[in-house]
């Protein structure tokens, strides 16, 4: 479903926006959500944040690879993606940015990671906070592979919903950041954020600007959430990409068809002379302590035992 509405842009990004995006049924998400899996790190004892791990050296000379890497200063909350933001046209002809929403998720996210690794290339993963608490180990795989990790709210709530108060909208943003940080063992994500369904309430655009968080729309939507099969994902993506010649591509590692389509999609990018641009943040986002504390209450995060080994394991025979 596509949603359009006139919005007045605010703060340092003052401009006229036309909202549109791939809306998902929240009920589908809630129904699909499993019981959170046990996690190896206690919420109260996380290590100090580290810089983002580097990508592994590429051993495939025929791989798509990474054409160039850009560093983003997110001061003031810059916007990216011509669907909504026209000011920052930084991509050259035949350059693309690969982005994936709604993960992490079993099988599908690992499938996407394998396809990217096989082609020695990279993307930005916009993570749902709840999903991060369900599958922290999968999210760590994304991070440790050198991909950029951004956020996508706590529960994928539509922040244009008039039933939500301003505090509740901020909570969706901030709990998402705290959850991803927790799942990464205390390592903070990039200050990159994508609104659910690409719906940008002006007051939240302003708020993200005060938090120095970059906002991502897209240049083209793969509509993989509507695809009947992997080929449909490929066909829709290249129909739009060949017309535009470049762009930020919106996909979802939550979806099976996306994981299935990606190997061929990446091969076609290579064959078509496209180059992948990696986007890195100048500095990570800083979570807010009150939301770090709130996360432990609302998410019922699993923890590991703090007892010494001798009080847990006793040798009874050898």
TrEMBL record:
Question: Which Pfam family, any one, appears in the UniProt record?
Answer: Polysacc_deac_1
**UniProt entry keywords in alphabetical sequence:** Hydrolase, Metal-binding, Signal
Give the residue range of the signal peptide: 1-25
Q: Which residues form the NodB homology domain?
A: 94-277
* Highest taxon of source: Bacteria
According to the UniProt entry, the coiled-coil residues are none
For bias type Low complexity, the affected ranges are 33-49
Which Gene3D superfamilies does the entry link to? Glycoside hydrolase/deacetylase (3.20.20.370)
PROSITE patterns documented for this protein: NODB (PS51677)
Q: Where are the residues of the annotated region Disordered?
A: 33-55
* Protein function: Is involved in generating a small heat-stable compound (Nod), an acylated oligomer of N-acetylglucosamine, that stimulates mitosis in various plant protoplasts.
Question: Which family is annotated?
Answer: Belongs to the polysaccharide deacetylase family.
* Protein name, entry field: Chitooligosaccharide deacetylase
């Amino acid at each position: 479903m596509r949603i359009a509405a006139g919005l007045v842009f605010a703060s340092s990004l003052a401009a006229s926006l036309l909202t549109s995006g791939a809306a998902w049924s929240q009920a589908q998400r809630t129904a699909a959500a499993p019981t959170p899996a046990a996690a190896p790190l206690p919420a109260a004892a996380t290590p100090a944040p580290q810089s983002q791990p580097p990508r592994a050296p590429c051993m495939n000379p025929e791989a798509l690879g990474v054409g160039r890497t850009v560093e983003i200063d997110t001061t003031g909350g810059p916007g990216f993606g011509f669907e909504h933001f026209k000011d920052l046209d930084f991509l050259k002809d035949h350059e693309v940015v690969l982005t994936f929403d709604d993960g992490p998720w079993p099988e599908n996210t690992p499938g996407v990671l394998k396809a990217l690794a096989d082609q020695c290339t990279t993307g930005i993963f916009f993570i749902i906070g709840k999903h991060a608490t369900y599958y922290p180990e999968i999210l760590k795989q994304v991070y440790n592979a050198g991909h950029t990790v951004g956020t996508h709210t706590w529960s994928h709530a539509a922040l244009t919903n008039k039933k939500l108060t301003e505090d509740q909208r901020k909570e969706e943003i901030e709990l998402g950041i705290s959850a991803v940080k927790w799942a990464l063992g205390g390592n903070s994500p990039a200050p990159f954020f994508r609104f659910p369904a690409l719906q940008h309430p002006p007051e939240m655009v302003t708020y993200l600007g005060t938090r120095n968080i970059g906002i991502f729309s897209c240049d083209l939507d793969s509509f993989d959430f509507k695809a009947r099969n992997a080929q449909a994902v490929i066909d829709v993506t290249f129909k739009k990409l060949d017309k535009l010649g470049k762009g930020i591509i919106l996909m979802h590692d939550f979806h099976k068809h996306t994981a299935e389509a990606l190997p061929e999609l990446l091969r076609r990018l290579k064959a078509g002379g496209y180059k992948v641009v990696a986007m890195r943040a100048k500095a990570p986002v800083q979570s807010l302590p009150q939301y770090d504390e709130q996360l432990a209450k609302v998410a019922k995060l699993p923890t590991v035992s703090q007892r010494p080994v001798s009080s847990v394991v006793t040798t009874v025979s050898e």
